[in-house]
Amino acid sequence: MKRSAKSPDFAAILREQPATTLPGNNHKNHPVVGHVGFFFRFGLVGRLGGVFKSYININIFISCKHLTKSMKTGIILIVIILIIIGIYWFRSKSKVYEKAPIDFVMLESKTESTDYLPIVDKNWLKEIELKYAGKEWKTYPNEHTDQSEKLCNDVYRPWKGEITHSEFLNKMTKEQRMYFALINFESQTNNGGVYQFLFNNSELSLITLEAMKAAKMDKLAADYEKVLHEYFGKFETIQDLNKQFQDDSKKWDKRWNSFAEGYKELESTFEIENYFYDEDYVKEFQAKMVEFVKSNRNGLMKIE
């Protein structure tokens, strides 16, 4: 059939018309998108409008579908986060803290006695002094270790744990409690640091500060007091601190459990450990322990 002169050859025009690429889309040479302008010019919107409309609807559907997936992912993440927060909140509220030790050994005790004083010869202290006089000092044995063997280790041996450590020490004299606190601090710190002392002998943590002051260990006492402030929190006096524990130990329970679960990094302990193991300081510490014994002999031994 011969075409009318008034009827344009659409196929030829389409072949000759250059393709147009829309920004942001990869539709190069697409017969619909590339020739939208042509279709409008020739009044073919009615014929091809359905095709173009379908194309737009498909793109909108795909975009909405992608948006829905993103929204679903976001909602799922929010739900998961809320569940985690809920579990953490529930566990923190329902956690039962282990009861923290508050039976501290204090300087004064209502049950103290002289029942645990070791019996020594009247010349015992002098004999030990002469034994090491003029000899080169060694970390062990020496005058301090010989004294502590008799005054501390021999006293500990009969104790089998039938009463608590605090109860046992509270039956001794005030001088014995201070001496035992210093001996325990020395041995535990040498073995595993100040943290180990606080963990294994928390009942001695308070009286140890007073013992250090009584033994004129000024630098150690000042540094150890910083440790106690980090360990317990700020306090004015040992007595006030003890009353605080007796009245309400909930906060201390929480701190103690965190500590017991592995909080070993008490930064203030590093200051002590930086010098406590040095030979010069060990010698100084032991010399002050020897002097403490000689100055408090009546409260540490019975002399025959």
Characterization of this structure:
By secondary structure, the protein is an all-alpha fold. The protein folds into two domains: 10-94; 119-303, no CATH class. Helix content is 64%, strand content 1%. The chain contains 14 helices and two strands. The chain has a two-stranded parallel ribbon with strand order 1-2. The radius of gyration is 42 Å and the shape is elongated. The chain starts with 9 loop residues before the first helix and ends with a strand. Residues 1-7, 10-15 and 17-49 have low confidence and may be disordered.
Task: Give me a quick take on this structure.
64% of the residues lie in helices and 1% in strands. The N terminus is likely disordered.
Topology:
Layout: H1 10-16, H2 36-41, H3 45-94, E1 119-120, H4 124-132, H5 143-156, H6 165-170, H7 174-200, H8 205-214, H9 218-232, H10 238-247, H11 250-260, H12 269-276, H13 279-295, H14 297-300, E2 302-303
Parallel strand pairs: 1-2
Helix pairs in contact: 5-13, 7-8, 7-12, 8-9
